[in-house]
Amino acid sequence: MESIELLPTLHLLRFGVGQAYLWRDADGLTLIDTGEPGSGPDLLAAVESLGHAPGDLRAVVVTHGHDDHWGALSELGTDATVMAHAADAPVLRGERGQQLPDLTAGSFRRLAELDVSLVCVGHGDPLTGDTSARLRAVPL
Predict the structure, then answer these.
(1) DSSP H/E element including 132
(2) Contact criterion met (CB below 8 Å) for 110 and 119
(3) Distance CA 38, CA 124 (A)
(4) Domains defined along the chain, listed by start
(5) SS3 of 112, please?
C-alpha cells in the first residue's frame, strides 16, 4: 500500500484496488473507507508507519455500501465508531445486499458480525469533534 501525504493532517492510502484516507485531528484518527476484504493488515501497518497506534482510530467513515469501501472493517480490531449514511446503514447491518454488478459469495458481511457501533450521518454533519471537517453527500 502506498501512503501519500496530502496535508499534514490527511494521508491518502492507495491499495492495489481503491483507496482510503486517514484524517488526524485533536480527537485522534479517522479512517475514511477501509478498502476491500484483506486490506486490514496494510491499513494498520500504514497507521503505525505514520507514528500512531491502531487504538488511536476513533472513527471509521464508510462513504458508501460497497464492500471495497468497508470490507476490511472487521480486520481493524479497534473500538472505533463506524459512521455511514443512513441510506447505506441497511447494507452494513445486513438488511439488504449491496448494489454491485457481481455479488460474490463471502464478500458480504453483516455489521452485527463485526462488533462495531454504527452512527448514521448525513450531509453537513461534522466529521469529528473538530467541526472544520464536515461530511458532504454527493448523489451518484
Answers:
(1) none
(2) no
(3) 31
(4) 2-98+107-121 (3.60.15.10)
(5) helix
* Residue ranges in the chain assigned as alpha helix (H): 40-49, 67-70, 89-93
Percentage of the chain lying above the pLDDT 70 cut = 68
| SS3 at position 42 | helix
For CA atoms 70, 73, 78, 84, the dihedral sign is positive
Cα–Cα dist 50/58, whole Å: 16
C-alpha span between 38 and 28 (Å, rounded): 24
Q: Is 91 helix (H, G, I), strand (E, B) or coil?
A: helix
Mean predicted confidence (pLDDT) in 119-126 = 62
Count the neighbouring beta carbons within 10 Å of the beta carbon of residue 13.
Answer: 24
Mean predicted lDDT score pLDDT of the chain? 76
pLDDT in tens, 28-66: 899 998 888 889 999 999 999 999 999 999 988 888 767
Residue-level length of the chain: 140
Q: What is the pTM of this model?
A: 0.70
For residue 82, the model assigns a pLDDT of 84
